[in-house]
Amino acid sequence: MPGIFATAVNCMDGRVQHSVNQWARERFGAEYIDTVTEAGPVASLAGRADSPGSGADIDEVFESIRRRVAVSVEAHGSKSIVVAAHEGCAGNPVNDETQKSQCRASATALATAFPNCEVIPVWVLLNGQIELLS
Ligand SMILES: [Zn+2]
User: Is the C or the N end of the chain the one with fewer CB within 10 Å?
Assistant: First the structure.
């Protein structure tokens, strides 16, 4: 397969697309970043990690994300996933520390779902800076 793919699970917020994709290209040496977005995805992914079956809505979002990441992993051969949370998230309006802890839990949930992938949780500042959470 020509080209190396990696996967980004990111917020749909337009302010954080470029920085996360650029970071993932460099960190994973990838040419293409398959991007799976939701409004504040770590809230649902972490809910799943903390207490499986904690709600139908959470399970539905988790499954939707998992299905799309699976296309990236299975069809494009991605072996690398970045999961991002960011400053000022309107889709997940909890404090920064809670978001960061949800992001780490999301990475754990994704690593369980995709055991052959490296999964890295990151915190994104609105100035474009990326902080590693692992
Ligand atoms: Zn957001």
Answer: N
